Amino acid sequence: MFPQVISTAASFNQSLWQEIGRVVSDEARAMYNGGQAGLTYWSPNVNIFRDPRWGRGQETPGEDPTLAAKYAASYVKGLQGDSAGNHLKVAACCKHYTAYDLDNWNGVDRFHFNAKVSKQDLEDTYDVPFKACVLEGQVASVMCSYNQVNGKPTCADPDLLRNTIRGQWRLNGYIVSDCDSVGVFFDNQHYTKTPEEAAAEAIKAGLDLDCGPFLAIHTDSAIRKGLISENDLNLALANLISVQMRLGMFDGEPSTQPYGNLGPRDVCTSAHQQLALEAARESIVLLQNKGNSLPLSPSRLRTIGVVGPNADATVTMIGNYAGVACGYTTPLQGIARYVKTAHQVGCRGVACRGNELFGAAETIARQADAIVLVMGLDQTVEAETRDRVGLLLPGLQQELVTRVARAAKGPVILLIMSGGPVDISFAKNDPKISAILWVGYPGQAGGTAIADVIFGTTNPGGRLPMTWYPQGYLAKVPMTNMDMRPNPTTGYPGRTYRFYKGPVVFPFGHGLSYSRFSHSLALAPKQVSVPIMSLQALTNSTLSSKAVKVSHANCDDSLEMEFHVDVKNEGSMDGTHTLLIFSQPPHGKWSQIKQLVGFHKTHVLAGSKQRVKVGVHVCKHLSVVDQFGVRRIPTGEHELHIGDVKHSISVQTTH
Question: What secondary structure letter does DSSP report for 140?
Fold first, then answer.
């Protein structure tokens, strides 16, 4: 019922993510108590949305590791509950570990793909959300992915599973394969000669559970051949059974246990549906608003034309991996609650292969006082096993938009419904198009939320969780290239706002409001000293590279810096504002342009101000990763971008 993950990520609201998790697990427990569901939920997907073509990018929190990490921890906490002790409400699962973000592109599919990833990119990008899932979210399971990483299947790599997830991060739970992954690395990748060797490699690497029949079929034979021992199996079983125990599966009648009172009356409650509406409202991003065209005034409109293949969308609004919605409000229905509507699809589906319906849409545009075009994508264009080949609107959608806009006598509002970014440069530069909104896949209440934003009942406050690139960007970046950083020698431009300096349609973090917000610093440290463990550490780490290894620093709470920022609403409408804080490391060999280090969402009344407190930890947020995958704290001047204010912090060392 809720918006797709990429949409809720646009809210930049950690408490919302946790509350969504709580509601999902309430309904999960209710279904379990009624014998209709289990307690294992393979969610969230926290892979980095590295490439804009990825069909499953919609399932993720976006391209930024800090945003994805905070989403992961918040959602998992909500999903698993906050019961005293070690009890679990449901068992969440962070997937797909690791560097999985290609499904089927240009003849390369996820079952055969070897992701060649540097230690640097693994540490500062791909692994960040998973680390937060385990350490901060205390997730009950992690799922390994189909692909190989540097020549090894992730589900057979002891360095990834046993050493990192279980060893360094101390997972309290189990590791599960993506469905049939063990069979995939035997049958498709030919990683081992026999199925017994494949079973043994997976179990010895640290895999506890196989989603699929492969281990059930071949493990007994692997034991008889001496490839693994019964003790190896006992360790895996202990990890699985301990989670079942934490779920209360051995505690008797469910109705007498925690959450035993949840039942059918707790599914699709009015409160849950209201949260779905609030999530949709917070997720909508106002990309452009020429001459303050929005919000529209219903009292000044006799008729509004609603055109486009997604104008009356229902199931499209919930994306993939969704249950049965409690009920839908389509964009057309939502708008009709405010003003009389006239409707034409314009295209038969988002593929929009013909223009035979364009004339009827143009007629509406000439007659209506305003036009809302609801265009974009759906699961036929972007989905699991379906990566896009381009970033433009499918088929003849662009022509439909241009023709309707040219015919319109009133303001033209363009809505893009999609999971991934779309190159709509043509619309951005079209003087006839008044405003553009990205509505993502807004969930069952999407139509209500869209109308509330268009007519000013809601002041939009969403921000883009991913960069919107121009179509030309794709020619420079094969989807198989996993490098985040640019390579000037080859002309490779790099990926995401952290490393890519080229032109964009809309940048990461972009999002307008019907109000104008300003920022001023009320409290901000100007320098911080990082204590070093020993003189030897100081000599080896700092004098040679002007950066201290995080492992050599005393990274305690004293290195948590607090910033107090006054956010003023200088407009005439109450609004919710997302304060974004970015960091730029000192000039030198550190290649990232900037990095999101914190964010905070606050509601500010018109003409008033709110003081926001945001914590930034030196070791976690001001560190960078070197080419060897070692996290370091550069000494010198770090520049923070706190909303529209720049502030420098001098980082020095003491011993």
Answer: S
In the three-class reduction of DSSP (H, G, I as helix; E, B as strand; rest coil), residue 429 is classed as coil
Rounded distance, CA 588 to CA 633, Å?
13
pLDDT tens readout for residues 409-429: 999 999 999 999 999 999 999
Domain assignment present for 492 = no
Identify any residues that bridge with 104 across adjacent strands, giving them in sequence order: 109
Same domain, 605 and 650: yes
Sequence-ordered strand ranges (E) for 199-239:
none
Local structure of 614: helix, strand or coil: strand
The reply to whether 509 falls in a domain is no
What is the CB-side half-sphere exposure of residue 494 using CA atoms within 13 A?
A: 19
The answer to whether 507 and 130 have CB atoms below 8 angstroms apart is no
Read off the CATH number of the domain in which 546 is found.
2.60.40.10
Residue 548 resides in a domain: yes
CATH code assigned at 133: 3.20.20.300
| Residues 43 and 188 grouped into a single domain | yes
**Structure token pair of residue 468:** 């919107």
Q: Are residues 284 and 250 in the same domain?
A: no
Catalytically active residues are 178
Measured in whole angstroms, the distance separating CA 213 from the mean position of its chain's CA atoms is 31
Q: Is the dihedral of CA 138, 139, 141, 147 positive or negative?
A: negative
- Structural contact between residues 262 and 29, judged by C-beta atoms closer than 8 angstroms: yes
Tokens at 473, concatenated:
């960007």
Residues 6+ apart with CB under 8 A from 626: 120, 545, 547, 632
Same domain flag for 171 and 303: no
Beta bridge partners of 577: 602
Is 223 part of any domain? yes
At residue 538 the predicted structure's pLDDT band, cuts being 50, 70 and 90, is low
* Last-in-domain residue among 428, 456, 476: 476
Structure tokens that stand for 463 in this block: 């921000």
Q: Which residue has the higher pLDDT, 543 or 445?
A: 445
pLDDT in tens, 266-299: 999 999 999 999 999 999 999 999 999 999 999 9
pTM higher than 0.90: yes
Do 11 and 62 belong to one domain?
yes
Digit-coded pLDDT (tens) for 354-413: 999 999 999 999 999 999 999 999 999 999 999 999 999 999 999 999 999 999 999 999
Same-domain pairing of 51 and 122: yes
**How much of the chain is in helix, strand and coil states, percent to nearest 5?**
35, 20, 45
Domain that holds residue 198: 5-256
Interaxial angle between packed helices 358-367 and 397-407, expressed in degrees from 0 to 180 and rounded to the nearest 10: 30
- 276 and 233, same structural domain? no
Q: Which helix (H) or strand (E) holds 285?
A: strand 285-289
Domains held by the chain: number: 3
236 and 275 in a single domain? The answer is no
